[in-house]
Write a structure and sequence with these properties.
With 188 residues, the protein is α/β, with parallel strands linked by helices. Helix content is 41%, strand content 16%. It is globular.
């Protein structure tokens, strides 16, 4: 099974730090898991405008194919201006509506205030619901007080929640695997 740890921004390092911790926990719990770390800042991204996948540049095609072929996702996003980054929404616009169906997704996010966690509920989850993902019920939100001045995660409660998120995600991954024989028979 292949999972993608998706850093949904092209700036900053806090989401990378959270994904690094999750990566460690998943590898500890499931050493044979194939994990691909996808950091959007490492791609030559194009604005999605509805053209066929093969009409985008090589990086966009690779990114789209990586997302569509994964068995599950852990998405990390900062909250900017009360919303997810445009670059993450742009990626979602490039993905086939059927590609993420019944695949598990866990969410980790960072933001500048305690209230920014609402973006997960009011913006990100509805997008993932549209894709009919198996969204885990626990997400992890971190704010500046959880990081050191040099942006290292320095909060045991957040680390414990990331460990729990990893465990729940792996259970959902199994649930998604159990659904796979039926995916082709399920109606839209």
């Amino acid at each position: 099974m292949k999972i993608v740890l998706l850093n949904g921004t092209i700036t900053g390092t806090k989401t990378e730090r959270l994904l690094s911790v999750v990566d460690t926990y998943i590898r500890e719990a499931s050493p044979d898991m194939e994990i691909e770390n996808v950091d959007l800042k490492n791609y030559d991204l194009q604005f999605v405008d509805g053209r066929p996948t093969e009409d985008y540049n090589d990086d966009m095609q690779k990114l789209i194919n990586t997302i569509e072929s994964a068995d599950g996702y852990i998405i990390a996003t900062p909250v900017f201006q009360g919303g997810i980054p445009g670059v993450l929404k742009n990626l979602f616009d490039a993905i086939s509506p059927l590609a993420m169906r019944y695949k598990p997704v866990s969410i980790v996010a960072t933001g500048g205030t305690l209230q920014h966690h609402l973006v997960i509920e009011n913006q990100l989850k509805p997008i993932l619901d549209y894709f009919r993902c198996l969204i885990t019920p626990n997400y992890v939100y971190a704010h500046p007080g959880h990081f050191t001045d040099d942006k290292q995660l320095d909060n045991e409660e957040v680390k414990n929640r990331l460990r729990e998120l990893s465990q729940v995600f792996l259970r959902y991954l199994q649930m998604g695997r159990d659904l796979s024989p039926y995916k082709s028979n399920l109606s839209q």
